[in-house]
């Protein structure tokens, strides 16, 4: 490393390499949608206020196919899957679950009609990305988020369980094709965390949110479920998989949960009901005794790439390049 230290002051090529290595940090992220369901899914996309629209706001994703979209740094928004859709040749139509009400394949700034499984993101501007999978607006199909190429915790999250098969009769929707949240089904302040229950101290997990949490322990189950449901990463690209066949190996089940400070969520996330405002906690005893505890997401511990290790790799690469230039 002595030769590296000598050249890094004198070679302009060194500065260029550093800039190239840091470009990923400031260039946003690539979102790749993968459909592993045995049926077609129509992803819907909603950018939050102040974030630009992506290349598409809705599209068709046939079974076994994928599609990628680019988002700029600081982008914030949500994704979901629409099912049992019927669109004509002009793109006009609707979906049985997750419909955005636009009457078209493109959602054009409209959000999902509950119940729908949601993937929510806020990309950092030179800071951490925040992401989660939310069941606060109900559930319609399994979904998992995986981050690649970043550093930090970067844990996978989502819900691989088919909650439609476990949904209580009072929450069933669309002939069993979706499962409502208790808030949507009963519209009471206790279930909706509204009115006098609009705080982490007063709005506690219900038997319905505990059912969701036990089946999908890393997903948001109610509005103040931040402590075990919000995840972070730096400089990653993300894959959103519908109907994942098995838990991702990159799991943080045994890692400490990310606990954001109250009232400090990145701007643009306030309009998303799935990103609760506050550091809510889940009663471990209640969850462990739930009748659905055996359905929890499995997997190995998260493989986090530490910044110091990444810098060492970058330094070695730079040394090799500089030496090759000097010796050529």
TrEMBL record:
Protein name: Thaumatin-like protein
Signal peptide: 1-28
Matches recorded under InterPro entries: Osmotin/thaumatin-like_sf (IPR037176), Thaumatin (IPR001938), Thaumatin_CS (IPR017949)
Entries under Pfam families matching the protein: Thaumatin
Positions of transmembrane segments: 310-327
Family of the protein in this entry: Belongs to the thaumatin family.
Signal among keywords: yes
